[in-house]
Design a protein that fits this description.
alpha+beta, Helix Hairpins, 4-stranded antiparallel β-sheet, 5 helices, 14 strands
């Protein structure tokens, strides 16, 4: 009789490999379960981090160092005789940057001083003339008083003789002589009054030249003194000094070059007061407020050196809106592009002293919007 397979035991007919495969499948299922659990835990931790920390920070690497640079320009014309500094040199406020030939300005100052001296002497003469005119006016007033007295005597004498004439006590010659003296006295009084008026007019003219002033603040002296001050100022401006502390850049002046007023010579970059303009996307700025703390790193020093600052301003417009040729969006083929808005970050001066930055360097910026 042929042997029949054992159908009562279903596992009896399976090969040994099937059981091993099932066991491996169960092992893989366990590993995937563990992996899924790990991923779930990581997702939960990341979600918690994002809710508690990450959502309160916005970052960008589109940020650059800036500074309010000081352009150095001459205020007088002339030939350059000295340039004690140059590009990359560190200067302090008041250091000499350029010296212009002062010869012409020294001569102009000497001429202005001579003109001032002449004006002072002239005004002193005005005061002396006023005193002389006052004395003349007093003398003319005395002459008028005397002439009036003489006229009164002549009138009395004439009246007396006229009263005696009908009785024959006074001759015709005496009466005529008295009348002549009276007429002469009238003429003398009229002349004295005229002289007094002329003297008074001359005194008013002399007084007007010095009215309410002294020699020092007389208008003519003041004008001459202003010219001296201007000449002195022009002479002082032949020495061009650094307006702020900083580093020299864009030096274009050389010894022997003739410079004109307003011509750019060099630039002083105040790196100790540098700031950062960070260009954030407009969708990142919902929670940005003035005063929020900022952490920054630079490519120059790497992530090991962190700069700290705070938000001090948000620009009034995007960069494209202030471009020379602004974007024309009122067209039929308009495509929306997310814009960036500059955010001004002021840095800690102490950290800038320890780790100086240069204008134009790139920075990585992280703003804590929760604080």
């Amino acid at each position: 009789m042929d042997a029949q397979p054992d159908t009562a035991n279903p596992k009896a007919g399976k090969p040994p490999q099937t059981a091993a495969a099932a066991k491996a499948s169960e092992r893989r299922r366990g590993l995937f379960t563990i992996l899924g659990g790990v991923v779930l835990v990581v997702a939960i931790l990341y979600g918690a981090y994002w809710v508690l920390v990450g959502s309160h920070h916005i970052k960008t690497d589109d940020a650059y160092v800036g500074a309010d640079v000081a352009d150095v320009t001459p205020l007088v014309n002339g030939a350059v005789i000295s340039v004690p500094t140059g590009d990359t040199k560190v200067v302090k406020k008041g250091d000499v940057l350029v010296v212009i030939d002062p010869s012409d300005y020294r001569l102009a100052l000497a001429q202005a001083q001579a003109t001032l001296s002449q004006a002072q002497r002239k005004v002193i003469g005005y005061f002396a003339n006023n005193d002389a005119q006052a004395a003349t006016t007093d003398a003319r007033s005395a002459d008028v008083t005397k002439a009036r007295a003489d006229l009164e005597r002549a009138r009395v004498d004439l009246d007396r003789r006229k009263a005696l004439a009908p009785e024959g006590a006074v001759s015709r010659d005496e009466l005529t002589s008295a009348q002549n003296k009276f007429d002469e006295a009238q003429s003398a009084l009229a002349q004295a009054v005229a002289n007094q008026r002329a003297a008074a007019g001359q005194q008013r003219v002399a007084g007007a030249l010095i009215a309410g002033t002294s020699v020092a603040d007389n208008p003519e002296v003041a004008v001459a003194k202003a010219k001296v001050d201007q000449a002195q100022l022009d002479l002082d401006r032949t020495i061009i000094r650094a307006p702020v502390d900083g580093v020299i850049a864009k030096n274009t002046v050389e010894v022997g070059q003739r410079v004109a007023t307003g011509a750019p010579l060099m630039t002083v970059v105040p790196i100790q007061t540098a700031y950062v303009d960070a260009n954030f996307k407009e969708v990142q700025l919902r929670k940005v407020r003035l005063g929020q703390p900022v952490t920054l790193t630079s490519d120059l020093y790497g992530g090991g050196v962190k700069f700290h600052g705070h938000v001090t301003g948000i620009a009034g417009g995007t960069g494209s809106s202030f471009a020379v040729i602004p974007a024309q969006n009122a067209t039929g083929n308009w495509i929306k592009v997310v814009q960036r808005l500059p955010v001004r970050v002021t840095l800690d001066p102490g950290e800038l002293t320890q780790h100086p930055l240069r204008v134009g360097m790139s920075m990585n910026v992280d703003i804590d919007t929760a604080r």
